[in-house]
Amino acid sequence: DARVTQTPRHKVTEMGQEVTMRCQPILGHNTVFWYRQTMMQGLELLAYFRNRAPLDDSGMPKDRFSAEMPDATLATLKIQPSEPRDSAVYFCASGLVRSKGLAVGYEQYFGPGTRLTVT
Amino acid sequence: DQQVKQNSPSLSVQEGRISILNCDYTNSMFDYFLWYKKYPAEGPTFLISISSIKDKNEDGRFTVFLNKSAKHLSLHIVPSQPGDSAVYFCAASGKGTYKYIFGTGTRLKVLA
Questions:
Q1: Residue A97 to residues A31, A94, B36, Cα–Cα distance (Å)
Q2: Of A40, B70, B89, B100, which sits most exposed with the smallest number of CB within 10 A?
């Protein structure tokens, strides 16, 4: 049963500390996404990768957030320094795009999320 | 600017009745639409999708309707069951892009 895994599931940290969230996409998937869920904004797209290359990170505050894919089995989202307004649930999702440029018939599979609380 | 809008934050329906969840979008370049369901402490899971070349797609108790002229889609659940109680997100994607734009979600509560 292939699924996206995320660690940690919960993280409580103090303002100013570095936070690293990790994601293992489904084996064989070639796109990876990071989302943030807040009450007001719903699911906000932060960044996404295709074949490990970053395609769009315009949803991220660049001064403190960074997203990387060091290899095909690991995606990371880092916040440094963290702030209380970063408190949210962060989801990773992966998908398989079979044809270049086509979104039809392509689904994203979500991990269980990391609940981040910054005090 | 919210390109995908779910204007009803919550909805309550009696078991056995129809649930209708609505979603509006502003970008006429969107050509693929999806609904995801989310239970507490879990990630969203794919429910049903529709391409812009269709106006209806059905899967068991779930039907999605697309009205392109109104830029509106809806999800019908018939009959509604208590297990359907969850947050439902609609999402849209444009041609040539892999990213989805999600709405803010509607919390459905099906009363037994």
A1: 7, 10, 18
A2: A40
φ, ψ of residue A61 to 5 degrees: the values are: -65, 110
Q: Tokens 């949210």 sit at which residue?
A: A88
B55: number of Cβ within 10 Å: 12
Mean pLDDT of A40-62: 87
Q: Check if B106 contacts A (Cβ < 8 Å).
A: no
* DSSP-assigned beta bridge partners for residue A50: A31, A53
How, if at all, do strands A10-13 and A114-118 pair? Answer: parallel
Quote helix, strand, coil % in chain B, to nearest 5: 5, 55, 40
Q: What is the mean pLDDT of residues B85-100?
A: 89
DSSP state for residue A71 in the 8-state scheme? E
Count CB atoms within 10 A of the CB of residue A118. 20
pLDDT of residue A99: 63
What phi and psi, each to the nearest 5 degrees, are found at residue A56?
-160, 120
Q: What is the pLDDT of residue A103?
A: 47
Digit-coded pLDDT (tens) for A73-106 = 999 999 999 999 999 999 999 998 776 555 455 7
Cβ proximity of A80 and A62 under 8 Å? no
Spatial distance between the Cα atoms of B85 and B59, rounded to a whole number of angstroms: 18
**Is B17 in contact with B103 (CB distance < 8 Å)?**
no
